[in-house]
Amino acid sequence: MKKGLLIVVSGPSGTGKGTVCHELLEKTPELAYSISATTRAPREGEQDGVNYYFLSKERFEQLISEGGFLEYANVYGNYYGTPLGKIEERRAAGQDILLEIDIQGALNVMKKCPDGLFIFLLPPSIEELERRLRGRGSETEESLARRMGNAKKEIGIGRKYKYVVVNDTVENAVRDIKSILAAEHCRVEGNEHLFEELEKE
């Protein structure tokens, strides 16, 4: 059986990763979502086990010591991580898995899963990125300045990824990602079984 894709979507804070991934999942029902764990407090409307697994710092650090994460990182004083769970088991069964993680986490996954499909999400402009961050209503001027400074540094890291998608509109970003997935599924590498079946006949 063909192994499922490990699709990693990341980008600077405020780029719209969550919105794009939510819409991608809505339009691609066969795609499974890997829920991340975090020690940060839930934002309004977020649910445990749906948006994130919200863990205490103590529980998170216990899982780290047990090797329970594919990757984890400390971002702005909070832990974020990808529980190992059944990711490889589901991929072995042919299911595509979507990870929406920060850039630091994605770089760690690149080392452990070089066969992953890494997609970097960019804002259409720095001005639009700042507007989106302000629109959250959860940033102080100090935290906004820090996030903007980090975003400018992080944008250059996108060159390490396999694909780049500009999130000018959610619809366009989702369309581009779906096109990437379709192309990846048509690669000769990973589809050797198709040739083998025909060559037997």
Can you characterise this structure?
The protein has 201 residues and is an alpha/beta fold. It has one domain: P-loop containing nucleotide triphosphate hydrolases (Rossmann fold, 3-Layer(aba) Sandwich), CATH 3.40.50. Helices cover 43% and strands 19% of the residues. It has helices at residues 17-27, 57-65, 87-92, 103-112, 126-136, 141-155, 170-185, 192-200, and strands at residues 6-10, 32-34, 37-38, 53-54, 69-75, 78-83, 97-100, 117-122, 163-166. The strands form 2 sheets. Strands 2-7-1-8-9 form a 5-stranded parallel beta sheet, sandwiched between helices. Strands 4-3-6-5 form a 4-stranded mixed beta sheet. Strand 5 (69-75) and strand 6 form a beta hairpin. Helix 1 (17-27) crosses helix 7. The longest helix is centred in the C-terminal third of the chain and has 16 residues, at 170-185. The chain is globular, with a radius of gyration of 18 Å. The two termini are 19 Å apart.
CATH superfamily, please?
P-loop containing nucleotide triphosphate hydrolases
- Helical stretch tally: 8
CATH architecture identity: 3-Layer(aba) Sandwich
Outline: globular
Q: What percent strand?
A: 15-25%
Give start-end ranges of low-pLDDT stretches: none
Q: Describe the strand arrangement of the main beta sheet, using strand numbers.
A: 2-7-1-8-9
Provide the number of structural domains. 1
Give the rounded overall mean pLDDT: 89
CATH topology: Rossmann fold
CATH C-level category: Alpha Beta
List keywords for this structure.
9 strands, 201 residues, globular, 8 helices, 4-stranded mixed sheet, Rossmann fold
